[in-house]
Design goal:
Elements lengths: L7 H17 L5 E5 L5 H9 L4 E6 L4 H11 L8 E2 L1 E3 L5 E3 L8 E7 L7 H10 L4 E11 L1 E2 L7 H13 L6 E2 H10 L3 E8 L3 E7 L1
Parallel strand pairs: 1-2, 1-6, 2-3, 6-7, 8-9
Antiparallel strand pairs: 4-5, 7-11, 10-11
Helix pairs in contact: 1-2, 2-3
């Protein structure tokens, strides 16, 4: 039985995201995707950006479905996904990391920050220096608040739904995320408005 999962949202947002990725990743070589989820983005972006090695990663329980999807795609630039997650102990960061690997010149993550607890968001950013090469880019897609204000009624409703399901989750304030990025030497390069009241925010080292 297939272990693949499906996200309609991934199908809707993949082309708007790809348009931005084409602008920023044309001179990149290795991308780490954190929180690959269904693997739909990994397969699609690896196919349409063949000059990149696209390394998917996620919590181990989601990897069988991601690996199955990538195996079906049979793309030479989309190797097997890594088991990787934000962990709070023994120190906040990303784990487990392979014993030896080449650092990435771009890191991409979509629809993850509002699913994680704030402590895990902090851990994710704390772990970035271990995987990012000098001059690397960080690209994060999803909904954001600005100055504690929702950008739309639909985002307000979505945030209420998230918190009802898990009180530790929720749409994050852009300013708070920028502060986490700055603590890791990352500077906001662009904040791109995307369909359905989402953003694609890009930071550089």
């Amino acid at each position: 039985m297939s272990q693949q999962r499906w996200s309609e949202a991934c199908e809707r947002n993949r082309d708007p995201i790809l348009a931005v990725l084409r602008r920023y990743l044309q001179d990149r070589h290795r991308v780490l995707e954190i929180g690959s989820g269904t693997g739909q983005h990994a397969a699609y972006f690896a196919e349409h950006l063949p000059h990149l090695l696209w390394r998917a990663s996620d919590h181990p329980e989601y990897l069988p479905g991601v690996a199955e999807r990538l195996a079906e795609a049979a793309l030479p630039n989309a190797p097997a996904p890594w088991p990787l997650q934000a962990e709070l102990a023994p120190v906040p960061g990303l784990a487990p990391l392979p014993d030896a690997f080449e650092r990435f010149d771009a890191v991409f993550s979509a629809n993850t920050l509002h699913i994680m607890s704030w402590a895990h968001v902090q851990a994710l950013f704390a772990g970035l220096p271990a995987v990012m090469a000098e001059g690397a880019l960080l690209l994060v897609y999803g909904p954001f608040n600005y100055s504690g204000t929702y950008s739309s009624d639909s985002n307000r409703q979505f945030d209420a739904w998230l918190k009802a399901r898990d009180p530790d989750s929720g749409i994050r304030d852009a300013e708070a995320v920028d502060a986490l990025a700055a603590a890791q030497g990352l500077v906001l390069v662009e904040d791109v408005a995307m369909p359905a009241n989402n953003r694609l925010r890009i930071w550089g080292r």
